[in-house]
Specification:
paralog of FGE (formylglycine-generating enzyme), 3-stranded antiparallel β-sheet, 2 domains, alpha+beta, Four Helix Bundle (Hemerythrin (Met), subunit A), 4-stranded mixed β-sheet
Length: 452
């Protein structure tokens, strides 16, 4: 398959997902704000079209604007999510017509891709933003701008999926149940001390905060073979974990009290049993599945209660990518091949995390399971640039978020698409957020005897 065909297929596959998420509800639900934490679904739909217009139609294609008059409405930095319903947004029919018109023009731009060259357009990008010639070349090299837009839309698709989870009313989404466990997975593994290559300088569609590859020396540590499960987390609740200040940091305890946290988001207790509200259905919590919808503070409190801690970002990535036999960093825990259904729970194929042990083919060389997919995993690191970081193609993707109160999440979830998930992909959010599909695993520093 040529690069042009690959890009066109990814654009179409992604748009089908966006359409499925927005066509699943009526117009009233599309324009309604289901939570102040989230935009109306119709905003997300038009926003992905606007970003596609800005980058592919105007900047890469050098074409005339489709709807320049609406740019300010869909600038995520100008309007907080809670305020977006009050904006004069495009209605459902207008939004669908707009994104379709933008896509037609973007595909016209794609047709300029030289089929004889795997790395460049036959005519250079001459964008409306006045990007430098070098930036213009980088935008089109390996179809990067198109890959950036695919990833951006898939990220908003996951955001829209989270909005569906917060939506009240009968279920409108369906999917096959996740697979059952195929391997017994428990305990932890030792990751020996030593350096590894973190980040990437070669992944064609990697974003700026994943770059460049750099050598990181990591002390020996032990990390859970699987994410913390619902049963394990329920034991923390039953032991009074939410009522004991000892397990929480000062910030975590303040948030626990102010937000009245008592259990993961969407959990409901009925007698001695736990149930969860999941996409309009109330069902028993699956004991062996990874816990989901917990914030960083909850994850950290559990780890402290268990006598452990959260891994750092470098520890998580070393466990996910480092191959001790070769000394190299893989693209994914299982190797360099793109994710397949046997490797990981990705792409909304299922509407819940799979029980631990469901994907033995996706394990790392050291036997760490489900590092990719199922739940985003909180790690105890702040969002900071890598040494040698360079913002590209715009500062607002990563650079403006460095140094805030953001904590890192790694690995993707059942709602993350394969195009927006790899061993180097970095996600970040405020430590109080739990409407996202977030879970965690724990770690601890190795003892001297274990390190020897």
């Amino acid at each position: 398959m040529s690069l042009r065909e690959q890009v066109a297929a990814e654009l179409e596959r992604t748009r089908l997902r966006s359409a499925g998420l927005t066509d699943a509800v009526d117009d009233a639900d599309l324009v309604r704000q289901h939570s102040p934490l989230m935009s109306p679904l119709v905003w997300d739909l038009a926003h992905v079209g606007n970003q596609e217009e800005l980058w592919l139609v105007r900047d890469v294609g050098g074409r005339e604007p489709v709807r320049q008059d609406i740019d300010h409405l869909y600038d995520a930095f100008k309007h907080a999510r809670r305020d977006r319903p009050q904006l004069p947004l495009l209605g459902p029919a207008e939004a669908r017509a707009y994104v379709a018109a933008v896509r037609d023009k973007a595909l016209d731009v794609l047709d300029r891709l030289d089929p004889s060259s795997p790395v460049a357009f036959s005519s250079g990008a001459a964008g409306s933003s006045g990007v430098s010639p070098d930036s213009a070349r980088r935008l089109v090299q390996d179809g990067f701008a198109f890959g950036m837009i695919v990833q951006h839309e898939q990220q908003h698709d996951e955001t829209m999926l989270a909005t569906h989870q917060l939506r009240a009313g009968p279920p409108v989404l369906s999917a096959d149940p996740p697979p059952q466990a195929r391997a017994a997975v428990g305990g932890d593994v030792l990751v020996p001390a030593g350096p590894f290559d973190m980040g990437t300088s070669t992944e064609a569609w990697a974003l700026d905060n994943e770059r460049p590859a750099h050598r990181v020396d990591v002390a020996a540590y032990r990390i859970d073979r699987a994410p913390v499960t619902n049963a394990q987390y329920a034991a923390f609740i039953d032991a009074g974990g939410y009522d004991d200040e000892r397990w929480w940091t000062a910030d975590g305890w303040r948030h626990r009290l102010s937000a009245s946290l008592e259990a993961p988001l969407h959990w409901i207790r009925d007698g001695g049993d736990w149930y969860a509200r999941t996409f309009g259905r109330t069902e028993p919590v699956v004991p062996g599945a990874p816990v989901v919808h917990v914030c960083f503070h909850e994850a950290q409190a559990y780890a402290t209660w268990a006598g452990r801690r959260l891994p750092t970002e470098a520890e998580w990535e070393k466990a996910a990518r480092h191959d001790p036999a070769t000394g190299r960093s893989r693209r994914y825990p299982w190797g360099d091949d793109d994710p397949a259904p046997r490797h990981a729970n990705l792409g909304q194929r299922h509407l819940a995390p799979a029980p631990v042990g469901a994907y033995p083919d996706g394990a790392s060389p050291l036997g760490v399971h489900q590092l990719i997919g199922d739940v985003w995993e909180w790690v105890d690191s702040d969002f900071q640039p890598y040494p040698g970081f360079s913002a590209f193609p715009y500062r607002e993707y990563s650079e403006v978020f460095f140094g805030g109160d953001y904590k890192m999440l790694r690995g993707g979830s059942f709602g993350t698409d394969r195009a927006a998930c790899r061993g180097t992909f970095r996600n970040w959010d405020h430590p109080i957020r739990r409407q996202i599909f977030s879970g965690f695993r724990t770690a601890r520093s190795a003892t001297a005897e274990e390190s020897a």
